[in-house]
Amino acid sequence: MAENDTTVYYDDDGTLSDLEDRTIAIIGYGNQGRAQALNLRDSGVESIIVGNREDASWSRAQEDGFPVYRIPKASSKADIVFMLIPDEVAPDVYENAVEPDLDEGNVVIFASGYNITYGFIDPDDGLDVVLVAPRMIGTMVRELYIEDRGAPALLGVHQNPSGDAKEVGLAIAKGIGATRSGVVESSFEVETKTDLMTEQALFPIFVSAMMSKYEIELEAGVPPEVIMLEQSLSREMAYIFQKAATQGIIEQLSLHSQTSQYGQLRGIDAFDRQPIQEYMRECMHRIEKGTFATEWTREQQAGYPTLDHLRKKYEKTEMVEAEQQTLDAFGLREEGTKDED
Ligand code: NDP
Fold first, then answer.
1. Do 87 and 103 touch, CB atoms closer than 8 A?
2. Are the CB atoms for 113 and 188 separated by under 8 Å?
3. Is the pLDDT confidence value at 319 over 80?
4. How far apart are CA 56 and CA 87, in angstroms?
5. From CA 200, how far away is CA 185, in angstroms rounded?
6. Residue 49 parent element (H or E)
7. CB-based contacts of 302: which residues, under 8 Å, 6+ apart?
8. Calpha distance 154→195 (Å, rounded)
9. CA 115 to ligand 1: nearest atom
10. Which phi-psi region, left, alpha or beta, contains residue 119 (left: φ > 0; alpha: ψ -120 to 50)?
11. Is the beta carbon of 28 within 6 A of some atom in ligand 1?
12. Residue 5's pLDDT band (boundaries 50, 70, 90)?
């Protein structure tokens, strides 16, 4: 069994003075970029600029009151650069528009471990390279901050020529509100593993279980709309996971009937998890060996043929079609979530 001891940092462990007299460039004003920039400013961090393409995000950053520059210009002005653009485009943008304008002693901050873990970005030795990875989506990073709370985050140091990389990372974690909740000392590799395992090991099993349940209930004469309403569209499942996130997966069972509690716990207890564990070990192996990363890079270079094929394939499965029809038939669709055609 691996030792998984953790060190967790809180507000008193970081000081914003580590960011004093340093210009911070937020590269990418999307989900994380906007949330982190606003939180840092509200925490009293003064010199924040944004680097982006000239489009809607550029205008939004200007409306929010930040000086906005093209990415190379923002990088050249910065002491600390946040790479908050999608992971697929980050290597190209970093190599061509960020690093050429950085100086020795600058700090590069990532919110995802992926590109460093797999060597798709290989920063110059003279740069500090730090991971500050919130465990929540950008809107939550902002919403929790406004409520005087914070999104937990992982902190990792990849390069530390200055000797201050961890202190700067903690100061940033404090500025975005993460130390209000707790910041786990970690690494780019660990962040990558746990992130990809959720996507590749957990969600496929979850969706496959939903599809299997649909098929078995159909065989047993349950109408498609009834299955879909019961399964996810009633929002009962969303509510359960929401409660699980704030009470715990077993604690939230008290919100269910005794019949439900007995059925769930009896089923969990009897379930053979070995095939699932084997599948998950295989996923972990692909992640650790970089097999997935290599495959995904090839897929991007080829113009996403498999992704397009799989999207179309699963849009046409019986359960997904029944789901779409049920959304319309019962007026459950959120406005603006489907094309008019
Ligand atoms: P978004 O997709 O929300 O950010 C997009 C930003 O990147 C926009 O400003 C966009 O500009 C810019 N951008 C997109 N493509 C390019 C390009 N080709 N060249 C230059 N700029 C580009 O990203 P996220 O905030 O979701 O993710 C940022 C980082 O945070 C990633 O590393 C991600 O893994 C990590 N992360 C994300 C979380 C989340 O909340 N989604 C949670 C935790 C970590 P434009 O307006 O032009 O599109």
1. no
2. yes
3. yes
4. 20
5. 24
6. strand 48-51
7. none
8. 11
9. 32
10. left
11. yes
12. confident
| Average pLDDT of the residues in 206-227 | 97
| Helices 291-301, 305-315: inter-axial angle, 10-degree rounding | 90
The reply to whether ligand 1 has any atom less than 6 angstroms from the CB of 32 is yes
Q: What is residue 103's predicted lDDT score, i.e. its pLDDT?
A: 95
CA distance 186 to 154: 6
Distance CA 174, CA 177 (A): 5
Tokens, residue 288:
């650790």
**Pocket lining: 91 vs ligand 1, CB cutoff 6 Å:** no
Relative to the CA of 29, which ligand 1 atom is closest?
A: 9
**What tokens were used for 50?**
């944004």
DSSP string, 96-123: IIIGGG--TT-EEEES-SHHHHTTSS--
CA distance between the termini of the chain: 54
Element (H, E) at 83: strand 80-83
Which atom of ligand 1 sits closest to the CA of residue 136? 42
Task: For residue 2, name the pLDDT band (cuts at 50, 70, 90).
Answer: low
Indicate which residue's Cα is closest to atom 45 of ligand 1: 57
Which domains does the chain carry? Answer: 6-186 (3.40.50.720), 191-234+271-329 (no CATH)
Closest protein CA for atom 10 of ligand 1: 28
Please tell me the distance from the alpha carbon of residue 319 to that of residue 315, in angstroms, as a whole number.
9
Say how many Å lie between the CA of residue 137 and the centre of ligand 1.
Answer: 11
Burial of 331 (0-12, 13-18, 19+ CB in 10 A): exposed
Q: Give residue 209 CA to ligand 1 midpoint distance, Å.
A: 31
Residue type, 133: A
Pocket lining: 56 vs ligand 1, CB cutoff 6 Å: yes
Tell me the pLDDT tens digit for each residue of 185-199.
999 999 999 999 999
- Whether 112 and 82 have beta carbons less than 8 Å apart is answered as no
